[in-house]
Amino acid sequence: MAQKDGKTAYPPVIVLADLSVPYLEMTGAEPCRQTDPEQWFPEHGHNATAVRLCHTCPLLADCRKWALANPQLASEGIWGGLTRAQRAALRRNEMRQAS
């Protein structure tokens, strides 16, 4: 893509995943794999059943860690027992504490 001044413009580099936090190794027995995917991605608010099921999963902590490290990939739905708003609040708090 060329700009009017003759310089070439490149699209911005977007890092899609934080490679320091690997994606979960799932077995297929996790609650999110055993139920209707729509439960985990409600249109509005959150699904209390999905959150409750999430808290029974042995991968809860790893899932939460991955979702917090990769907000652009886990921007919607229930991840690690947290809603989008809850994850955003945790990230904001972490940034405040770091500064």
TrEMBL record:
Q: From what superkingdom does this record's organism come?
A: Bacteria
Enumerate the spans annotated as 4Fe-4S Wbl-type domain. 31-89
InterPro entries reported for this sequence? 4FE4S_WBL, Whib
What is its subcellular localisation? Cytoplasm
Give cofactor(s), names only: [4Fe-4S] cluster
Q: What are the protein's UniProt keywords?
A: 4Fe-4S, Disulfide bond, DNA-binding, Iron, Iron-sulfur, Metal-binding, Transcription, Transcription regulation
Q: What is its main location?
A: cytoplasm
Sequence similarity: Belongs to the WhiB family.
Q: What protein is this chain from?
A: 4Fe-4S Wbl-type domain-containing protein
- The species this protein belongs to is Streptomyces thinghirensis
